[in-house]
UniProtKB/TrEMBL annotation:
This is TonB-dependent receptor. It comes from Hymenobacter gummosus. Residues 115-233 form the TonB-dependent receptor plug domain. GO terms for cellular component: cell outer membrane. It comes from the Bacteria.
Length: 1048
């Protein structure tokens, strides 16, 4: 026994010495972006085998050397870091997401694929990049962040739908909105409201619920969706829980909004001067306008924009709970948004709820559901470009030399229900009412309810084979209400107006897929999917309206029976079915040689029975040169780490062609003294030969990676040939039905361009990172075929073979004759003509030859008469940008994060009809540009002589001209966000994982030469043929917000 004790003494000494040389350290590994603990992260003493894995909440404890040493921390999906231990015993580490690693798995149609194996053009945007942006829709947050994608916000009104185009305009008369798929479910994207401001279905997806979205652009990526893929595809994946204990988050922001820019209008003094000069030049006494002095002796000068614009308020709140166990993954969220617009009477309120649940019933079986519920209420206004109650149109035209309100606060009006004329000798032109009255008394309300839901079952009967079935519904209920007060404005002429609409729309979608993944012999990677899809869409509405209201209170509450005139009722019902079979095969050999083939067969009920089924093939190849031995032998692989070339071709279609474009439409018609149903001017003949609009997509691309993925470059050249476009063909007059026609596949267009994306990690340190994203795209759109090559002419646009769709079309304005103030135009033959500004007499509203060598010659005697006709019009520019893109920089330092994002457009033109209207020679207010008008011989100016009653002729009202067509180029600081995350050593004491405060500004400033309120405004944003027109558009808003992100 003594010998044993003596033997243990030195052993104990050794153990004691070892214990004296080590110590216990603990800490927590968290996600730097969310503050949540990272379970299963590896914490290792560098240079040793001593290490542990973090617990479910990210905590760890391990033994470390008493002095020195370095911790190495890593986890799948995060950038590994090293941290000197020093003398610390408590070490907390935040890991940044490894964007390259996260993007290795990309969501594709009906499945996923490793990015290294992709042969198509797909852009991925993580939801965290857009979650805190204060916009009503994720689509507006996409603007500038993906190459090849144009997102335009056409007005500043809340609740309106943005315009989205992927790789150009791909149809003339049919829809060009991309297919949007949420968690495998195709959803409604178009306007489903008869409301004056329309509706935005994409806003029903809370950006805070988005995990990521992929933009599929080329034929290889989109071909799996066949007939619905001509306009590209956006795949949205909503959030799921993460392994570990439940995580609670709360995010909010509060903010204010202001108009981005206002119109530059005349004040009272300038208005009086201009109005009297108009009158005097038209032969009047020049005393039509006079000052107005109020009861306090102050001369009135009303800025009507102060009356209709205000500081808007916005608030947004989102709370969520999520987590995952070995069996169940769950994510629940609730959101509330309340926004008051910068325009009086415009507001939006939305409630949203999401529940995503996935459960493993057996090791070979999973079931789940994704459910989104929203209720949205929007109060809007009359957006008519020339309605008496139109907000901007009405406000800009009103006299500035009269008060906005009476002393008792009521709107200043006269007995006829129009704006009071004050001391002016005449009433306002066109009988404009005081805009305050309709804004305060008319009602434009839209309430919508939305259910986005799907349920699925997935089984794995044998290894590597997954069978999945998913049933989904997108159900919308639209409740629209309009009330026009009978006392003033648009309602006065009909003694009040009430309109009510109820419209349900339902889309059912059932998808069944079988997916097989395997690797054969370590070199052959195979991924195959086959499936069927069935979709049925029904859309209907029921409406009633009435005029001659007996009681305003009843009318305001939608009681149409209170109207004395016979109520009008309406309704419609339409349905569409889609039946599909599809398959895709992806093959990779040694991660070098890549092949993908897709085939889809679609049958669409909207087409004639003989042409309903279409076959849509697609294929692509890729070569990862960086995996070749000769490339690795060049000694560049340490710097140039990835080099892939790819090419694809596919044929896809467009289902957004209406419900039954081949069916003949009838209407009530009268022939002689008889009445019957017949083909009238609002109907059309049928055509049972209608078939698919088809797009042939070609793409050649290259993907480059440097420095282990810290620099990534993606470049593409694409070309889309679209043919079989459905257009209206006029019927011969000999048929006896004038102005009638039928639909036929007679149009074709071409889009081609380049795309370049650059993503860099400029600096990557534990406490300091700096990354940059940049993209630039070009697009050339050309019409290549029309019916007999006949032009399609709209008021300001033309669709012509050899030109871009909806190019601006008008007269070539050459300035002002310095001798007499007449406007000068260049005719098609190159000669110059001048239009007389005389308000009356023999020369009024007539054109005469203009001789620059003799500008002062008398019209009608020394100068010969001439003409200016539609034959003298020419193409003035395209309406879609030729070059566009974005530039973003993100910097993190210690707990601070800064994100700055710019967006730009180049090459498009805008017809500024608003500016044209603000130079009218009628008795109403003008823009300040009219102060530069010609007044006397020798004046050098671009603004002609003014005279009452000459607007239509002098300004070419209703026509485009180079005088009012302007460049739409701009560079915009779209977003600036500055945040600060409180260190975990403080939040841990509060049992909080993360607290981040942030401030943000959107639409900070815009650099542009455009003279309107915003270069993105687009009055006809729903029309492919009539884009690029600014006609009394509502200005966009600048938003400044502050908020907090909290995670428990």
């Amino acid at each position: 026994m003594n010998k044993l004790l003596l033997g243990l003494i030195p052993l104990a000494a050794i153990v004691h010495q070892a214990e004296a040389q080590t110590r216990q350290i603990s800490g927590r590994v968290t996600d730097r972006a969310t503050g949540e603990g990272i379970p299963g992260a590896t914490v290792l003493i560098k240079g040793t085998t001593t290490g542990v894995s973090t617990n479910s909440d990210g905590t760890f404890t391990l033994s470390a050397p008493n002095e020195g040493g370095t911790l190495s921390i890593s986890s799948v999906g995060y950038i590994a870091v090293e941290r000197p231990i020093g003398t610390d015993t408590q070490i907390n580490i935040g890991l940044a997401s490894d964007n390259k690693t996260l993007s290795e798995v990309v969501v594709t149609g009906y499945g996923t694929q490793e990015r290294r194996d992709l042969t198509g053009s797909i852009t991925t945007v993580q939801g965290e990049a857009i979650a805190n942006l204060a916009t009503p829709s994720f689509a507006q947050q996409l603007a500038g962040r993906s190459a090849g994608v144009v997102v335009q916000t056409p007005t500043g009104l809340l609740g309106q739908q943005p315009r989205i185009q992927i790789r150009g305009t791909n149809s003339i008369s049919s829809g060009t909105y991309p297919l949007v798929v949420v968690d495998g479910q195709p959803i409604f994207t178009g306007n489903t409201s008869a409301f004056a401001n329309g509706s935005n279905p994409l806003a029903d997806i809370n950006p805070a619920d988005i995990e990521s979205y992929e933009v599929l652009k080329d034929g290889s990526a989109t071909a799996i969706y066949g007939s619905r893929a001509a306009n590209g595809v956006i795949l949205i994946t909503t959030k799921k829980g993460r392994q570990g204990r439940a995580s609670f988050t709360y995010d909010n922001y509060l903010g204010v909004a202001q108009t981005l820019k206002r119109y530059d209008m005349l004040n009272a003094e300038e208005f009086i001067e201009i109005s009297n000069e108009k009158d005097r030049n038209a032969g009047g006494a020049g005393t039509i306008a006079a000052p107005f002095v109020d009861a306090n002796g102050n001369t009135v000068s009303t800025d009507w924009q102060d009356e209709i614009f205000r500081q808007g308020f916005q608030q947004n709140h989102v709370a969520s709970v999520s987590g995952a166990t070995d069996k169940t993954n769950y994510y629940f969220s609730g959101g509330y948004t309340d926004q008051t617009g910068v325009i009086v009477s415009n507001s939006l309120q939305r409630f949203s709820f999401r529940a995503n649940i996935d459960n493993e019933v057996k090791k070979w079986m999973r079931v789940g559901m994704n459910l989104g519920l929203t209720r949205t209420r929007v109060y809007g206004l009359n957006t008519s470009i020339n309605g008496l109650s139109g907000n901007v149109a009405g406000a800009l035209s009103l006299f500035p030399n009269v008060p906005a309100r009476n002393p008792d606060g009521t709107p200043y009006t006269n007995a006829a229900g129009i704006l009071g004329q004050g001391n002016n000798s005449q009433a306002i032109a066109f009988n404009y009412p005081n805009i305050l009255f309709p804004l305060e008394n008319n009602i434009y309300r839209s309430i919508s309810y939305r259910i986005l839901g799907n349920g699925y079952l997935e089984v794995e009967p044998v290894k590597n084979l997954r069978l999945r079935t998913q049933l989904s519904t997108d159900t919308q209920l639209q409740d629209d209400f309009t009330f026009w007060d009978p006392r003033q404005g648009d309602g006065r002429g009909v003694n009040g107006y009430v309109y009510q609409l109820f419209g349900p729309s339902i889309r059912w979608n059932w998808v069944n897929t079988a997916t097989y993944n395997t690797v054969v012999g370590e070199s052959h990677k195979i991924n195959a999917v086959i499936g069927t899809e069935y979709q049925k869409t029904t859309s209907s509405y029921y409406s009633a309206s009435g005029t001659n209201i007996s009681d305003r209170t009843l009318g305001q509450n939608g009681i149409i029976s209170s109207t004395l005139a016979t109520p009008s009722i309406g309704g419609d019902f339409a349905e569409q079915g889609l039946q599909s079979y599809f398959g895709r095969l992806n093959y990779s050999f040694k991660d070098r040689y890549l092949l993908s083939f897709t085939l889809r067969s679609d049958a669409l009920s909207s087409l004639p029975e003989a042409n309903r089924r279409g076959l849509f093939p697609g294929g692509s190849i890729g070569w990862r040169i960086s995996e070749e031995s000769f490339f690795k032998g060049m000694g560049l692989s340490s710097v140039w780490t990835d080099f892939k070339v790819r090419a694809s071709y596919a044929q896809v279609g467009n289902t957004d062609i209406g419900f039954f474009p081949y069916v003949g439409a009838f209407g009530a018609a009268q022939y002689g003294t008889s009445s019957a149903l017949a083909y009238n001017t609002s109907g059309r003949f049928g055509n049972d030969q209608i078939k698919w609009e088809s797009s042939k997509k070609t793409d050649i691309g290259v993907d480059l990676g440097f420095l282990g993925g810290r620099i990534n470059v993606n470049a593409d050249y694409y070309e889309n040939d679209v043919d079989g476009l459905i257009l209206a063909v006029r019927t011969p007059l000999s048929l006896g039905v004038p102005n009638n026609g039928y639909n036929a596949n007679i149009g074709s267009i071409n889009n081609k361009g380049f795309e370049l994306s650059l993503n860099t990690e400029n600096i990557r340190k534990d406490n300091f990172t700096w990354s940059t994203t940049f993209n630039i795209s070009t697009n050339k759109n050309e019409v290549t075929g029309l019916n007999n090559n006949e032009d399609i002419i709209d008021p300001y646009n033309i669709t012509r073979v050899g030109e871009a769709i909806g190019s601006l079309y008008g007269y070539d304005y050459q300035g002002v004759n310095p001798s007499n103030g007449n406007p000068i135009y260049r005719k098609a033959d190159g000669s110059l003509v001048q239009g007389s500004t005389a308000a009356s007499g023999a020369t009024a509203s007539r054109y005469y030859v203009y001789d620059p060598a003799n500008p002062g010659a008398a019209l009608g005697t020394g100068v010969a008469a001439s003409t200016l006709t539609t034959a003298d019009k020419k193409v003035l520019g395209q309406t879609n940008p030729k070059v566009f893109g974005g530039l973003g920089n993100t910097v993190t330092f210690m707990g601070f994060d800064l994100d700055v994002f710019f967006r730009y457009n180049y090459g498009n033109k805008i017809m500024n009809v608003t500016r044209q209207q603000l130079l009218r020679n009628d008795f109403l207010n003008n823009g300040r540009e009219i102060l530069d008008r010609w007044q006397r011989e020798g004046d050098q100016t671009d603004v002609p002589r003014i005279a009452s009653g000459t607007s239509a002729f002098v300004n070419q009202d209703g026509n485009a001209s180079t005088r009012f067509v302007e460049s739409g180029n701009f560079v915009r600081l779209q977003n600036v966000t500055l945040g600060y995350t409180i260190p975990t050593r403080f939040t841990n004491t509060l049992s909080v994982n993360r607290i981040r405060f942030f401030v943000q500004a959107q639409n900070v400033f815009t650099i542009t030469k455009y003279k309107g309120v915003d270069p993105e405004v687009n009055t006809n944003f729903t029309s492919n043929r009539q884009a690029g027109v600014d006609y009394n558009s509502n200005p966009q808003q600048r938003v400044v917000t502050g908020g907090v992100n909290v995670a428990f």
